[in-house]
């Protein structure tokens, strides 16, 4: 992974070939399309048997149950589906995103702030000779004052774009013709922040303007990704960037995980990884409760899940938040200090190995 400062040009390269203790390791992280991940999970669910899938319905209401002569369900969440079906949950897991209805039902507050940034995403095609000129195992990220622009490798010469930028810039990018959008993505890795700021003010014509500016802007082609040539149809989208953290991950017969528990800036690509870590820890917690004869929905049984994940997630969120704020500064002594720090880390293989291990979840 090649990362550099769009203002000062200082850079750092993460490569397992430079590792001190793990010279045989070759991969920092993997990219997988969501459709493939979902298909794999569904396949595994069917293999396991005993799992009932309810599709094409939504949760319309969640309420606490009532006491009856046969069973006291006053602590049990009762879920009403749009189909009219009702379900009683011994343990209700809220994996329903940042606007979690499960979190609202449980009365768990979520605190944080908006970044006043949008993430623009798209699936892109690298040049026709990409199989020979583009290292499909390399990711690129350039920190611009408005936010980082990342190009992440996919198979067969494709790449995934994640460009964090101002909401007004995101609106402009989505309104452009395909040829102008492609030019802007290429410019994001090559032209100066001043050039990009001006280009965002143009309603159209970026392709011709960037072609001229690129000819007069020096850059090392070996250090930037190869030019993008096309965009997958209907793949351009954007979403607001926020940091939110729930006060707790558990309540009586409720557990939160993934975006329902925490949302993070995408600059380090750790959002899904954090959610997967939550799943692993919650599974371990439930197994322990079953093996020791506990009620899996009790607050006591769920306590270890929060203990395992809250501090770990909070640390990652704090680091990513500080990185966003650090690289949002465009001038002054901060630029010099952060550039010095980046260069210093790049010269220390053992420190880079530590960061790579953290990114890989180990």
Please provide a written account of the structure.
By secondary structure, this protein is an alpha+beta fold. It has a domain at 110-246: D-Amino Acid Oxidase, Chain A, domain 2, CATH 3.30.9. It has 11 helices and 15 strands. The strands form 3 sheets. Strands 1, 2, 7, 8, 9, 10, 11, 12 and 15 form a 9-stranded mixed β-sheet that branches. Strands 3-4-5 form a 3-stranded antiparallel β-sheet. A 3-stranded mixed β-sheet has the order 6-14-13. A hairpin with a 2-residue loop joins strand 13 and strand 14 (254-256). Helix 5 (178-188) packs parallel to helix 7. The chain is elongated, with a radius of gyration of 23 Å.
């Amino acid at each position: 992974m090649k990362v550099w400062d769009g203002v000062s040009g200082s850079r750092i390269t993460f490569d397992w070939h430079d590792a001190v203790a793990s010279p045989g390791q070759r991969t920092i992280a993997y990219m997988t399309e969501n459709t493939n991940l979902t298909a794999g999970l569904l396949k595994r669910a069917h293999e396991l048997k005993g799992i009932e899938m309810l599709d094409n319905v939504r949760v319309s209401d969640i309420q606490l149950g009532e006491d009856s002569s046969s069973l006291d369900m006053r602590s049990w969440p009762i879920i009403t589906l749009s189909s009219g079906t009702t379900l009683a949950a011994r343990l209700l897991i809220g994996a329903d995103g940042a606007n979690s209805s499960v979190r609202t039902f449980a009365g768990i507050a979520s605190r944080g702030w908006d970044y006043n940034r949008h993430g623009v995403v798209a699936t892109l095609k690298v040049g026709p000779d990409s199989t020979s000129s583009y290292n499909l195992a390399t990711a690129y990220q350039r920190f611009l004052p408005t936010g980082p622009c990342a190009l992440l490798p996919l198979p067969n010469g494709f790449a995934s774009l994640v460009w964090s930028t101002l909401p007004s810039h995101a609106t402009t990018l989505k309104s452009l013709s395909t040829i102008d959008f492609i030019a802007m993505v290429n410019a994001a890795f090559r032209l100066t922040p001043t050039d990009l700021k001006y280009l965002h003010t143009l309603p159209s014509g970026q392709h011709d303007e960037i072609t001229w500016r690129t000819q007069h802007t020096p850059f090392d082609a070996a250090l930037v990704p190869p030019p993008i040539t096309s965009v997958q149809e209907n793949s351009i989208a954007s979403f607001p960037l926020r940091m939110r953290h729930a006060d707790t991950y558990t309540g009586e017969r409720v557990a939160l995980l993934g975006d329902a528990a925490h949302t993070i800036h995408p600059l380090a690509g750790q959002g899904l990884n954090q959610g997967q870590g939550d799943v692993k820890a919650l599974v371990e917690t439930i197994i322990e409760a079953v093996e020791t004869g506990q009620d899996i929905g009790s607050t006591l049984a769920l306590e270890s899940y929060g203990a395992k994940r809250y501090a770990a997630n909070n640390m990652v969120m704090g680091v990513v938040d500080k990185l966003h704020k650090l690289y949002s500064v465009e001038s002054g002594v901060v630029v010099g200090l952060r550039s010095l720090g980046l260069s210093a880390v790049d010269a220390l293989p053992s420190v880079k190995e530590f960061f790579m291990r953290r990114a890989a979840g180990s």
